[in-house]
Amino acid sequence: MSGRRAVERCDLLGGGRFSDAPDFLFRPYLGPAHKAAVSQLTNWMEEAGMSVRLDPVGTLIGRYEGTGPGALLIASHIDSVKDAGRYDGPLGIMLGIECVAALAGRRLPFAVEVAAFGDEEGSRFPAAMLGSRSMAGLAKHGDLEIAGLEEALTGWGLSRARFLDARRDPSTLIGYLEAHIEQGPVLEADGLALGVVTAIAAQKRYGVTMTGTAGHAGTNSMALRRDALTAAAEAVLAIERIGRDGPPDLVATVGRMEVLPGAPNVVPGEVRFSIDVRAGTIAVRDPAAEAILAALGDIAESRGVGLDIRQLHDLPPAPCDPAMMARLEKSLAAIGQPVRRLVSGAGHDAMAFAGITPMAMLFLRCKGGISHNPAESVTAEDADLAFRAMLDFLDTLAEDFDG
Predict the structure, then answer these.
(1) Which end of the chain is less enclosed by CB atoms within 10 A, N or C?
(2) pTM: predicted TM-score of the whole model, two decimal places
(3) Which domain holds residue 10?
(4) Each residue's pLDDT tens digit, 350-380
(5) Residue closest to 218 by CA, chosen among 257, 179, 263, 180
(6) CB atoms near residue 98 (< 10 Å)
(7) Which residues pair with 197 in a beta bridge?
(8) C-alpha separations of 312 from 137, 149, 202, 299 in Å
(9) Letter string b/e over residues 245-270, b meaning 16 or more CB atoms within 10 A of that residue's CB
(10) What is the Cα gyration radius of the chain?
(11) Over the stretch 378-403, which tens digit does the pLDDT of each residue have?
């Protein structure tokens, strides 16, 4: 039982049958690699003494019974982006399994559940956090009208009709804890292995389509063109400018773009792209998002192209529970680690639970702050410190637990 073994298990899941791509790690929701990972995690959970089940969304849940009915949920995600690193998501699950294994049959006054969500990244379907949002009761029927989702669920013996049955009664939970790599450079810059998250930033995500007129590249006069790509390029620069001009916690990103028809000798007639706007507060995020949308409207009008904008996500900031944070900080101090608080600019499954149960997050240092990249790296020593802190967290929570 150790953080080292948690890292080794993440490494094992880093390729082969645990990836749907032969040359890099890609584990999308409800794909073959996801199923293989669930099978392997089932074995590890059962070895640690947990009973295991799959919920209607495809979330794997291992339960280690306590002497009382309530449960502490330790969770993260098992899916990945394309060409991913090995630790974003899986490390938090492995550390949870290690904590249960370390109990070695000792029962706490509450159960411990370790959950592996299958769709945090949204790398297969145009939605994210379907597993955690469904468990938290935040998913709606309209969220499930996604092409291909029903077929994917059927392949797992699941059904979209029962998707919302994954909702968890909040009264059965005593809290939520997620360990995750920082995905940023702050801890490394400060020379620290671990950090306590204070809140997860608010996010808005949009899908944008700019529509011009496709035409022959050799015969369309530059002055008369309605080029969707040049309009989109100006839009991207405007998005960057607004993001840079805001407070330090504001970020704005275009991460995906599709150019149609995509021929070298055709003026682009349509461009589709994403916008991701994040900040620590809604008061910063929303004015920036409004400024971006206004700028896109001006660009479309001046260039004579059509503009369609769809809001895909609106995730409020998720503050961590003060009492849970304080307990986690005491656990860091108990293992001789300084306490560093920081905001998460990245979204996590923990966001879904902030409104229904006390929530806390523990960050681990990652080399260079690199994530969503094969260069993603953590040390076994840092992971072992996280394991020790989480185990102390469980023990002190049990000591103070009043049901």
Answers:
(1) C
(2) 0.84
(3) 3-200+317-400
(4) 999 999 999 999 999 999 999 999 999 999 9
(5) 263
(6) 25
(7) 342
(8) 18, 17, 14, 22
(9) ebeeebbbebeeeebbeeeeeebbbb
(10) 22
(11) 999 999 999 999 999 999 999 998 76
